[in-house]
Amino acid sequence: MHWYLTDGLHWYLTDVLHWYLTDVLHWYLTDLSHWYLTDVLLWYLTDVLHWYLTDVLHWYLTDVLHWYLTDVLLWYLTDGILWYLTHLSHWYLTGLMFWYLTAVLYWYLTDLLLWYLKDLSHWYLTDLSHCYLKDVSHWYLTDVSFWYLTDVLHWYLTYLLHCYVTDVLLW
């Protein structure tokens, strides 16, 4: 107990409290607060805010907005719309319509109708009609009629009548 009252309390009151009151508080009040008040706040107020207010805002207000208001909007209002109104509509009204009126209609009126009137009708009037008049009618008049007159009638007159006369009547 004697040690506690003498050495322990003495050690606590002198060394620990002295260390706390002098070294720790001194360090906190002087070094740490000085560092905070000068270095951190100064860095924040000068460097960060200065960077934000000058560089970032300046960049935004001048470069970005200037780029947007002049280059983008100017391009859109002049070049984009002008390009649309001149080039695209010009292409539509001249190129596409000209292509339609000349190429498609020309193809329809000349090539398709000419093919129909010339080639198809020629094929119909010459080849098909010729085939019908010559080949089919010839086949009908010669082969079918000849077959009918010779083979069918011959069979009827000879075999059928012969069978009737000989087999039925004579039987």
At a glance:
The chain has one helix spanning 2-169. By secondary structure, it is mainly alpha-helical.
How would you explain this protein's 3D organization?
The chain is mainly α. Helix content is 98%, strand content 0%. It has one helix and no strands. The protein has one helix at 2-169. The N and C termini lie far apart (167 Å). 0% of the residues are buried. The mean pLDDT is 76. The chain crosses the membrane at residues 65-85, 97-117. Keywords: Membrane, Transmembrane, Transmembrane helix.
How is the topology of this model organized?
Blueprint (H helix, E strand, L loop, with lengths): L1 H168 L2
Main attributes of the structure:
171 residues; transmembrane helix; membrane; mainly alpha
Silhouette:
elongated
Q: Could you give a short account of the major beta sheet?
A: none
Estimate the strand proportion. Answer: under 5%
Q: How large is the radius of gyration?
A: 58 Å
Overall mean confidence score, pLDDT = 76
Return the structural class. mainly alpha
Give the total of beta strands. 0
Helix content: over 70%
- Contiguous uncertain segments of 5+ residues: none
* Helix and strand sequence: H
How far apart lie the N and C ends? 167 Å
Number of helices: 1
